């Protein structure tokens, strides 16, 4: 599916990273590269950012701050009457200084136009935007959803325009918070992939790399727009969000049925995933979750892992197929048309979430150990996504970022600070719709298939495959580029 991960730059010094079966070319980021940004953005006098959602809000501010002192202006474009205008003004984007304006006027005046409005809005209004572009303007995306929609509808990007993508592997708040932390610790930020979909004048690669550096990405790797939107949409419906919701709700019920009180069941399910399990993976890798357990704990982990892997892999494959053939994208568009501007119902009212506040209130009393059964279920689901992406031909940087790093270094810390239900109820509508569709599927599969099977002896072949999996090598290589800072969540 993907093109070669080898590329060159006329601006930045690139590195080669060893991955299973070969190497990938990557760019290591850092603020010491900011002086090179005017060269990377050669020919760009104005960057337009359409949208003030989580990504638009973060990226506009990061770009403006990184390009301070240059001749490049970052301007935010919003639709008339946008409720976001007041917040944009509070952060220094104003009509008076020429950095805030009508979305189509900003689109018409930009040399690089970043389309960061909601997926459904972009699907509905992209033709209006395309119609006003400057002749040589470059289109920038942070998500491949629009490519999938264009293919579904027989459309295409306008001829003669560069089309690039820089896709941070984390939510917008993470993009901004870690960028701010990067002022103290050079390189702190969110990893990004980049793609060059159309390059009529040969400047697209350096432009994309400059955009990623300006966002604060510690390392940037190459993919394709098609590969990005497939892995991104599948990931948020699986281990990044949808599966996490199904896992913790099913485990909470599992422990309650075993006799735990509400707080203990919450600690053994949600608190364990977002806390000690996520921290162990982030700092020491996937194998360490199992290796750090005592023999009795490993036996529990092994049974949970091997019972869960099969049902989880089936679901991830089903999600992937529905993303690849357009079914999942159509479901998002249909849901948006049906819902309109109505508020979606919230999931945070189920019984388990009432215990979350009490659990968070007593964190200072003790440090929870890894719960072996929970760990086996979670790691198996994560590995199911890794294996599905590997089988579908994704590059290793994309596999470990979309399946592991984005989860443990961006999303799970936010879930730990609030809870999984809060994250689901406050994420993008595309992610929220997918989570509400697939989370219950994971919950049912685990309750009905995995947990009963966990009473049986562990499958030794599956455990051997886990212990020797090439993903460990790829994750270790990527982790060497991790900044020495955890995201600040307040």
TrEMBL record:
The question of whether tRNA processing is a record keyword is answered with no
- State the source organism's domain of life: Bacteria
Amino acids binding Mg(2+) 1 = 232, 236
Q: In which pathway does it act?
A: Amino-acid biosynthesis; L-isoleucine biosynthesis; L-isoleucine from 2-oxobutanoate: step 2/4; Amino-acid biosynthesis; L-valine biosynthesis; L-valine from pyruvate: step 2/4
Specify which residues bind Mg(2+) 2 according to the UniProt entry for this protein.
232
Domain called KARI C-terminal knotted: residue spans: 224-366
Keyword field: Amino-acid biosynthesis, Branched-chain amino acid biosynthesis, Magnesium, Metal-binding, Oxidoreductase
Cofactor(s), by name:
Mg(2+)
Pfam families, sorted: KARI_C, KARI_N
Family matches, as InterPro entries: 6-PGluconate_DH-like_C_sf, 6PGD_dom2, KARI, KARI_C, KARI_N, NAD(P)-bd_dom_sf
Q: Which residues form the KARI N-terminal Rossmann domain?
A: 27-227
What family does the entry list?
Belongs to the ketol-acid reductoisomerase family.
Put simply, this protein is called: Acetohydroxy-acid isomeroreductase
Q: Which organism is it from?
A: Streptomyces hyaluromycini
